[in-house]
Amino acid sequence: MEETTVLELAVDRYAIGAFAVYLLIIVGLGVWASRFSSRGVGHFFIGGRSMNRIVVALSAVASGKLIR
Question: How many beta carbons lie within 10 A of that of residue 43, not counting itself?
Answer without folding.
Answer: 14
